[in-house]
Automatic annotation (TrEMBL):
The lineage of its organism: Bacteria, Pseudomonadati, Pseudomonadota, Gammaproteobacteria, Alteromonadales. Specifically catalyzes the dephosphorylation of 2-phosphoglycolate. Is involved in the dissimilation of the intracellular 2-phosphoglycolate formed during the DNA repair of 3'-phosphoglycolate ends, a major class of DNA lesions induced by oxidative stress. This is Phosphoglycolate phosphatase. It comes from Agarivorans gilvus. The active site is at D13 (nucleophile). Keywords: Carbohydrate metabolism, Hydrolase, Magnesium, Metal-binding. Its EC number is 3.1.3.18. It catalyses: 2-phosphoglycolate + H2O = glycolate + phosphate. Pathway: Organic acid metabolism; glycolate biosynthesis; glycolate from 2-phosphoglycolate: step 1/1. Belongs to the HAD-like hydrolase superfamily. CbbY/CbbZ/Gph/YieH family. Pfam families: Hydrolase. It comes from the Bacteria. It is an enzyme of class 3 (hydrolase).
Length: 231
């Protein structure tokens, strides 16, 4: 088993990793589309558009597919962005929920005094409110949103920022996420990574991105740290 003895910090993605936020994102996206007089989409479709931040999500919805239409008028995007932000801010945590195993795992890490941080591509307009409303805000020492720094995942900048902030060696941090963006960022900065099999990874098997560990639940990370399972 790859040793986790030196683990000093766990960085978590948010959407698709800790929180199943797709239901409320879909509600906000569809409310935006209705306001614009455009076709709406089912939740499953919207789930496949989540993971690269609000701008890409909105542009995918306007394009009606996973491929962003770069010919969309900027004025249309700006109008759509304003509508989406309004609807989502008003409904951050209506149907969103913590994934199974998240609440007890975060509590365990906290009890063991393992520092935890959030590294998400979600805009800072939404991140603190969602963390607070869903009841996990107090677990995290640092929260980095998609617009907190000059670049977001899969760029390694947010993870490098955490290493510098905590004055850690790269192998002392683990990135936990559901998307190839999380694993690519971890690889680029040289830290460990755990890929979760659920969440929003565009229908791809997270194992294809080559994380150090693959898990079906966050509880498995507790077990890995305890040395009770092998990888």
């Amino acid at each position: 088993m790859k040793s986790l003895d030196e683990l000093k910090l766990i960085a978590f993605d948010l959407d698709g990793t800790l929180v199943d936020s797709a239901p409320d994102l879909a509600l906000a996206i569809n409310a935006m589309l209705v306001d614009l007089g455009r076709e709406v989409f089912d939740e499953l479709t919207v789930r496949h558009w989540v993971g690269n931040g609000a701008e890409v999500l909105i542009k995918r919805a306007l394009s009606g597919c996973s491929t962003v239409d770069n010919t969309l008028p900027e004025s249309l995007y700006r109008q759509a962005r304003g509508l989406f932000e309004q609807h989502y801010c008003e409904n951050l945590c209506i149907a969103s929920r913590l994934y199974d195993g998240v609440a007890e795992s975060l509590a365990t890490f906290s009890q063991r005094n393992i520092p935890m941080a959030i590294v998400t591509n979600k805009p800072s307009l939404f991140t603190p409110g969602l963390l607070k409303q869903i009841g996990i805000a107090d677990y995290f020492d640092v929260v980095l949103s998609g617009d907190s720094l000059a670049r977001k995942k899969p760029d390694p900048l947010p993870l490098q920022h955490l290493l510098d902030h905590y004055q850690l060696a790269n192998q002392q941090m683990m990135m936990v996420g559901d998307s190839k963006n999380d694993i690519q960022a971890a690889k680029a900065v040289g830290c460990r990574s755990l890929g979760l099999t659920y969440g929003y990874n565009y229908g791809e098997d997270i194992a294809l991105s080559g994380p150090d560990f693959v898990a079906d639940s966050l509880v498995e990370l507790v077990e890995l740290i305890d040395g009770s399972v092998t990888a």
